[in-house]
Design a protein that fits this description.
3 helices, mainly alpha
Length: 66
């Protein structure tokens, strides 16, 4: 998901996606620890960037409201 796509989400959708991405990241971490190897190691980076982008959009929205 690109920054522009994340920027167009509502606050509720944004929060829902952040929680969903964090859960997915945790599942990847647990699976990697259990198997001593990650099946999709690139997904760690992808999910962390998505979460960071979502937090950035949320911060930008809060600053505009003030």
């Amino acid at each position: 998901m690109t920054f522009d796509e994340i920027k167009n989400l509502s606050n509720e959708e944004l929060e829902k996606n952040i929680v969903e991405w964090k859960k997915e990241l945790m599942k990847l971490r647990v699976a990697a620890m259990m198997e001593k190897k990650a099946d999709k190691p690139h997904m760690f980076k992808v999910l962390k960037k998505r979460i960071a982008r979502a937090h950035t959009v949320r911060t930008m929205a809060k600053r505009e409201e003030i």
